Amino acid sequence: MKAAIRRKYGPPDTISIEMVETPVPKENEILVRVHAATVNRTDCAILLGKPFVMQFFTGLGTPKSPTTGTDFAGQVEAVGKEVTSFQAGERVWGFNDSGLASHAQYLTIPEHTAVLKIPEHISYEQAAASAEGAHYAYNFINKVALKAGQKVLVNGATGAIGSAAVQMLKSMGLYVTAVCNTSNVALVTALGADKVVDYQKEDFTQMEEQYDFVFDAVGKSTFSWCKPLLKPGGTYISSELGPHAENLYLPLLTKIRGGKKVVFPIPSDIKGSLRFIQNLLETGQFKPVIDRKYPLEQIAEAYTYVASGQKTGNVIIGFE
Ligand SMILES: NC(=O)c1ccc[n+]([C@@H]2O[C@H](COP(=O)([O-])OP(=O)(O)OC[C@H]3O[C@@H](n4cnc5c(N)ncnc54)[C@H](OP(=O)(O)O)[C@@H]3O)[C@@H](O)[C@H]2O)c1
After folding, report:
1. Measured from the CA of 265, which atom of ligand 1 is nearest?
2. What is the CATH T-level fold of the domain 134-263, as seen in this structure?
3. Who contacts 235 (Cβ-Cβ below 8 Å, separation ≥6)?
């Protein structure tokens, strides 16, 4: 089979497409023919081996898996002897933030990990685009007690995480202000945002309106910039560590001090996220944003584009 291979951590030009052995499923695994995967920001971190802490999961010094890829949507080709919940021919999607070797024509995955059947009306591309960013978005949302009618500001509303967060928050009945650039105002309005702030015309940190939550889905702000935007007791969450990794210690400091808080979202329970997302997909409350599609042969270009930090939603790798 064809697979994207790299044998050391490094930039996109370390990847090449090679012919390798098709994996054979163990007794508890399914073999999936991959139809779509994404190149996402987690893939970029795994490709580079940065931040270094990532290497504790993906291989210290040298990547454990030469094949990249963390999410997939495809068709079950074969199942191991002990597998009871899947059968050949079913359409499935899944995600693992430390790697699934999904940038290949086939992959194997244990049946009891984060893999689910794809709802009938959802395409392979839509399913693949519903995994990584939406999982992290859900892990912002499930770290705080949200109530319908509360006000939340989402910075970076056009990213994979932000575009999923806006839709999830709207499905829960929150009032959402979304920050994006001029060219994406129409997109973000279509995602359901109640108010859109164009960051090329206005600095959202200088606004007078106050919020119960500020979610910075692209990690471009700091707690101190956003503190005036928060109502008393309001919560700030960023997807990045911030200057001097402050978002790691501010949660404890702000908890001790009381008042406005910082929460750092350590993502967990991927299968729980996929179930939550699947329910939104089935009820039409979440439609993943897809930016572009690349064939597997152009995966290095896809990585370069995603690493630029300028994608809108998700970038698909297609397997024709
Ligand atoms: N903590 C975690 O576990 C975790 C996991 C995964 C990812 N991350 C991090 O989360 C961040 C977001 O990931 P993602 O996949 O959603 O990102 P992404 O899709 O790459 O985000 C790109 C989007 O961000 C927008 N953007 C860039 N600069 C902006 C700014 N100054 N203000 C507002 N929007 C801006 C861009 O819009 P424009 O076209 O307007 O520039 C683009 O649409 C990344 O920094 C990633 O490293 C964290």
Report:
1. 1
2. Rossmann fold (3.40.50)
3. 144, 212, 213, 214, 260, 261, 262, 263
pLDDT band of 164, cuts 50, 70, 90: very high
What separation in Å is there between the alpha carbon of 179 and the centre of ligand 1? 12
User: How confident is the model at residue 320, as a pLDDT?
Assistant: 75
Task: Assign domain 2-130+288-318 to its CATH architecture.
Answer: Alpha-Beta Complex (3.90)
Atom from ligand 1 closest to the CA of residue 241: 1
Distances (CA, A) of 252 to 97, 140, 184, 237, 249: 26, 17, 36, 13, 6
H/E segment holding residue 127: helix 124-128
Res. 248 pLDDT band, cuts 50 70 90: very high
Q: Is 180 in the pocket of ligand 1 (CB under 6 A)?
A: yes
pTM beyond 0.85: the answer is yes
Domain boundaries, the chain: 2-130+288-318, 134-263
Domains 2-130+288-318 and 134-263 share a fold: no
